[in-house]
Amino acid sequence: MGSIGSSGDEVVTIDVQEAKDLIKSGYGYMDVRTVEEFKRGYVDAEKIYNIPYMFNTPEGRVKNPDFLKEVASACSKEDHIVVGCQSGVRSLYAVADLQNVGYKHLSNMGGGYLAWTEKHFPVVKPEDVDQKKPEIVELKKPEDDEEKKPELVEPKKPEDVEQKKPEAEL
What we know:
10 strands, single chain, alpha/beta, transferase, Oxidized Rhodanese, domain 1, STR17/STR18/HARC1-like, 5 helices, about 170 residues, globular
């Protein structure tokens, strides 16, 4: 996996209002939070994918070793996708990793699910799930595969990650 910006492309971070507008216009939404976080509530979007970038383990948070493979099975490199997490940090790294392998139309949702809910934008809660069933990709946990040992990663500080503001709308 490359580091942030190693592909030459900087991660574009947008605010939740821009994210909401893109999702409404047809962009997919990839929630990279854990399955447990996702089940407590998620962004209300027509096309939504829950593909965790990291897992919580007794040893700490570990990177999902199958993240890129799982994204490839759910999305094409040409799909237009807003990527979000709880606060905007995991999604920043997820977008960088995806850009490093050729995904082109990605935006990181700055502030994540917390900022989304602070704006009182639409969410789906567990009690709503029976009424609305989006396309959800659920994944196995790393302990399901004894051969794979996920690597421990030390999270970087947001200020250490190269970011750029989106260019003016075309």
